[in-house]
Amino acid sequence: MSRQQPRNQSQEQGYQKACELLHQCRTRVGFLASPSNNDNYRRIWSRDGVILSLAALLTDEPELVESARETLETLARHQGPHGEIPSNVDPAANRISYGGTTGRVDASLWFVIGCGEYWKATGDRPFIEKMVPVLEKIRFLLGAWEFNNRGLLYVPQAGDWADEYLHSGYVLYDQLLYLQALRTLRTVHQDLQKTVDHALQDRLARLKHLIQANYWLHDGDGIPDDVYHEILYKKGREAAPGCAGRYWMPFFSPTGYGYRFDSFANILVSLLDVADPAQSEAVDQFIEDITPQELALLPAFHPVIHPPDRDWKELQMTFSYTFKNKPYEYHNGGLWSMLTGFYVADLARRDKQPLAEKYLHGINQANALVCDGQKWCFPEFVHGKKLIAGGTHRQGWSAAAAIIGSQALQGKNLFRIDHD
After folding, report:
1. For this protein, what reaction is catalysed (predicted)?
2. What's the domain count of the chain?
3. Is residue 307 a part of any domain in this protein?
4. pLDDT at 3 over 70
């Protein structure tokens, strides 16, 4: 881990503005995704709420830490009958959603991770003891979501944060969250029960091995040990020869591999100590190649899907209310502060300070953009070509990105649960 680095004036301003927005997201029942007037965002979202909570825990500000606990308690109170954690809770209308056209697999995964991180950061033993029955129901549900009991979660279309993108099957992003959730469950069990859960330990080891074997395509004719499906792996390598050895594949399904670069997954695979150093270096180079020179922010996915492309027609059909994934917007090549914050955390822990500072500067540039005549609008994403603010303004997890990145450069670890 890097030594603590003093913040320059730009970093300090970005950090303070981000903390101010996190305070504006606070309610008596947890963090809103955004305090803006967009009703859909004035809710306690599991995914957004935990990411805001991870940032809050790094600040050591008592009010923000308290909101992290309240966020998790609100989500736990509305756990579904099978163990599922809500996608979001509307505290004003007392409405609970477990997803739109399908459920959200990552909602439960982020919740487990959030509970462990809050407990580790605060030492709040009564909290984690109260959460044990909630966590056990989630653990059972996650096992059921493997469907075939072969170690990987199966994620339906629109089943995670890429909810209107072409992304389904054995999605790498969700497997990585699953890995960290299982690590959290192992740590909770060992601390409270003072024993080792060998079945859980075996599941953890197998999952990590499955990720390493199935999502990094290797050049040549050899097949790694323990591939999920040998024919699928061979077909994936043949279909995307330019991807082998450059980055981790986003998903595979019964119909084959996806090949677009998934920034969140490629960040997490390094941040959670699954990638080896050479793999992380290759991904760094790929990110450098696709990052706009004018603004150091990561796209959600790359390359962009355009109207002539084979996938364009299907993408146009994938939305809940209105089509958002136009070229260079939202998941289709939009640039995200939130994702970049996790990348800064990974770069800092790998002692790549100059590169981490470059991307933190990009986050602060994006967060400071002007919207409706107001500077520091914290946009949801930035248009990948025009570099203008897009989506909902005053987005809490864009603020969380600045906090996560800044505190990582101060030497703080984003995740406290052991990765061994």
Report:
1. Hydrolysis of terminal non-reducing beta-D-fructofuranoside residues in beta-D-fructofuranosides
2. 1
3. yes
4. no
